[in-house]
Design brief:
Length: 293
């Protein structure tokens, strides 16, 4: 069964399990880096958007043997949660004081998201862009968030700088940065990996959830602390939107080779919607800032 057939059959199965007043439609949403993804959108006569469910991951589960009926049951249960969250969003977005403690930022590729940035408040960061979201729910099963648009700023009568200040504070609390030796991270993924990786002087900078963890490079104090730990300047390789790799300056690999590594990983190991950048960055301890080498 191809993806299109899967979507149609799943839509029919989900529809049969919903109450008669709720309908579901297949929609295409342009996400990060301009990548389109298929979603099921839930609606009632009173509300034309009760939430959406991304189908890409479910198709992968189906190809791995998960029954269509089981997927449909999961989506119906998730829809009930989305219904309550959509009501929460509608309420929260009417009052800035209700959301200010849940505003976070994300870091995206500016060039790949030119169209998406036209209606979203954002700030430039090197050749990237900082965008803003409201965290609705954070649990062991994942993170649910809602994007902030210019229309929200107008309604709240606040500016982008205010959003950024909130996100700076909230991000450290909600998604505190983490720094781990790359050998430890690799051994969690591949327990029997060779011990030679213990000799690799590189670190993974992210957050505990590995959720949009590349935003950790937005914290000046975090970057300074890493420099103090290493006692030298360092390179930052954007492994994805979820994490970056820190290479001390003594690593003795030419910048061109590090860039080539980032580009190779992006091409063969990272989903198109999760690519952050195709080149490395450099932290200068004396200047106290991250820059493009």
């Amino acid at each position: 069964m191809n993806y299109e057939e899967f979507q149609e059959e799943l839509q029919q199965e989900v529809t049969e399990k919903l109450d008669p007043h709720t309908t579901v439609a297949i929609t295409q949403l342009q996400g990060n880096n301009g990548v389109f993804r298929s979603e099921l959108k839930f609606m009632t006569p009173q509300n034309d958007n009760l939430g959406t469910v991304n189908l890409d991951g479910y198709y992968e589960s189906f190809l791995n043997g998960m029954e269509l009926s089981q997927i449909a049951n999961e989506i119906v249960n998730l829809q009930e949660q989305l219904r309550s969250k959509s009501q929460l969003v509608a309420y929260d977005l009417s009052d800035f004081n209700q959301v200010r403690d849940r505003i976070i930022f994300r870091l995206v590729n500016a060039k790949k998201n030119t169209k998406q940035l036209t209606d979203k408040p954002h700030l430039p960061f090197l050749d990237l862009a900082v965008v803003y979201y409201i965290v609705l729910d954070k649990s062991s099963s994942g993170v649910t968030s809602s994007p902030i648009y210019y229309k929200h700023l107008k309604h709240w009568n606040v500016d982008t700088a205010t959003l950024h200040a909130c996100a700076q504070s909230n991000g450290l609390r909600i998604f505190p940065p983490t720094l781990e030796p790359i050998s430890s991270v690799l051994k969690e993924i591949v327990p029997n990996i060779e011990d030679d990786f213990d000799l690799v002087p590189a670190y993974v900078l992210s957050n505990k959830e590995l959720h949009w963890g590349a935003t950790s490079i937005l914290y000046d104090q975090v970057l300074q602390n890493i420099g103090d730990l290493l006692h030298m300047n360092y390179y930052v390789a954007p492994s994805s939107i979820h994490e970056t790799i820190i290479y001390p300056d003594f690593f003795c690999i030419p910048r061109e080779e590090l860039n080539a590594t980032v580009q190779f990983v992006n091409k063969y190991a990272v989903k198109p919607e999760e690519i952050l950048s195709n080149h490395i960055y450099y932290y200068d301890r004396i200047a106290g800032r991250l820059k493009m080498p």
